[in-house]
Amino acid sequence: MSITIQNLNKQFGNFTALNNINLEVESGELVALLGPSGCGKTTLLRIIGGLDVQNSGNILFHGKNIAHRNARERSVGFVFQHYALFRHMTLFENVAFGLRVKPKKERHNETEIKRRVHELLQLVQLDWLADRYPAQLSGGQRQRVALARALAVEPQILLLDEPFGALDTKVRKELRRWLRRLHDELHVTSVFVTHDQEEALEVADRIVVMNKGEIEQVGSPDEVYANPGSPFVYEFIGNVNLFHSRTHALWTHQHGDAIAYVRPHDIEISSDPHPSSLTAIVKQIRAIGPTVRLETATLPDGEIVEIELSRERFNATPVSVGDKVFIYPRHIRLFEEKKKNPEFSAIAHHS
Amino acid sequence: MLKLKEHSVLPGFNLALGFTLLYLSLIVLIPLSSLFFKTATSGWDNFWEIVTNERVLASLRVTFFSSLIAAALNAIFGLVIAWVLTRYTFPGKRLIDALVDLPFALPTAVAGITLAMLYAPNGWIGHYFAEYDIKIAYTPLGIVIALTFIGLPFVVRTVQPVLEEMESEAEEAAACLGASRWNTVLRVIFPSIYPALLTGFALAFARSIGEYGSVIFIAGNMPFISEIAPLLIVAKLEQYDYAGATAIALVMLLISFMLLLIINGLQGWSNRRGMK
Known about the structure:
The complex is a heterodimer of chains A (351) and B (276).
Chain A: E1 3-12, E2 15-25, E3 30-34, H1 41-49, E4 56-61, E5 64-65, H2 71-74, E6 76-79, H3 91-100, H4 110-123, H5 139-152, E7 157-161, H6 169-186, E8 189-194, H7 197-203, E9 206-211, E10 214-219, H8 221-226, H9 231-236, E11 241-244, H10 249-252, E12 258-262, E13 267-270, E14 278-288, E15 291-298, E16 304-310, H11 311-316, E17 324-329, E18 332-336, E19 344-346
Parallel strand pairs in A: 3-8, 3-9, 6-7, 7-8
Antiparallel strand pairs in A: 1-2, 1-4, 4-5, 9-10, 11-12, 12-18, 13-17, 14-15, 14-17, 15-16, 18-19
Helix pairs in contact in A: 3-4, 3-5, 4-5
Chain B: H1 13-41, H2 44-51, H3 54-87, H4 93-99, H5 102-105, H6 108-119, H7 126-130, H8 140-165, H9 168-176, H10 181-210, H11 213-219, H12 229-238, H13 242-274
Domain ABC transporter (chain A): 3-237
GO cellular component, one term (chain A): ATP-binding cassette (ABC) transporter complex
GO molecular function (chain A): ABC-type sulfate transporter activity; ATP binding; ATP hydrolysis activity
């Protein structure tokens, strides 16, 4: 089932949480709402689920306007950051809840409920814990139960609010891979909220980057990473070095007030000077897994520039702390200062 | 040998336990056991005769039944008040919140006299009921009202923190799963506040059984109808009938203890089901 959001606005008192949001989520897609905390991503998700009410705007499920239906009538599965399991019920009863509260006419008989609950618990690989209470489970297990519970009523749309936010790194990684597999099996239209760019890049079909109640960019993970549409997206996703045209006119060319954005892995170092290179001193060298991260300070003004090299590349021309090196960018993107849209982008080739 | 003390990182076990036992002995155990000894001096037959006396039995019935009804009323309306105080914000909320504790602070005799005045057939509230031939003050109904007044804070103050702690997310989850409001209240909210509600009920009930000051002013104190057991005890004391007084007291003590044990058991049972 597709989701269409038209001109959605939400205010909390004087604070604008969502400002004229327009978004299309296609049937069967897995979409991530990504942004820093307070950007309105959770509010947007809650409004889609009917847990908050918009001030204006429309929400269409499969072309039908459901903006004024409450959560109960939207048949949407919702997974909360802190699981929100029913503490006084066993896992079995938690998952069965949605089936038991159905109106009498639609309710299944007890054997059918049992069969379906066990099927769902098997799907989340927790069937052997059916008689336990939520308090006896680990965080990762609880979130899997919450997911099974949401899926029990066979929702057409699944909404997940920072589903792995409360879990530690290892469990997170496991669970998001598992979520991706589950989504590929079930093909239920899913929207999940996260502030973790890695999570969004790894799991989602498409990413919606939000900032201050507005959508900054919508695109595939690759597009959003390789071709950020605004300075905000550049800074929020991945690391980036900024160069002001005032101090580094060489890199930003002749343009007036502009800022150049360069990813750390798009910077080359060499021991010989180059027409467009800057001189820098190596301040710190840290090897993190397959990459080596250099912190350098430009001469003469001492601005910090981060550089990432592959281990092989580093080993081919090793440098040490205190060395003077020449750095030049392989790929630069310019944005006019204090404006959203890129004035132009340039790829600088130096060979 | 029985090992009393498990090794623990918390220091001061011996001292703390010793103090607890001493304190409880001085304040609770010794006074209560002297009740047993005093009663025992008068002999079994005498005891049996006193406690099976019609008037004594009637007063025990009045005490326990009106306490039970008052505690039940408090459980219902105290829950509503706690709900309103935790779930909504409105002007004057803090004032109402403070008002709830007033029955704790007021001398019970003052409460009794005030209630008797209000609910008397010619009182502010009583005269509306008098028009329909309903008497409140000086009847068992009056006793229930006094006891409801006394017990109210117990329920509100035990349920309130549990309601405050309850995450609204569980309710939202229930709504998303298609549960009606009624189903949510019944299956999600009530089970999680039920143990606290039971505690509040037990406290209000226990308090009501022992209540004396407020009740005697509004009850009318008619033997067999609106005479409570504590009053009968005082009456016996005034006649220097110590054996009679302690005998009634002992029966009250035993019944109260049994009822509280049952309520405790119920709580333990529901806690085990709910797990912590």
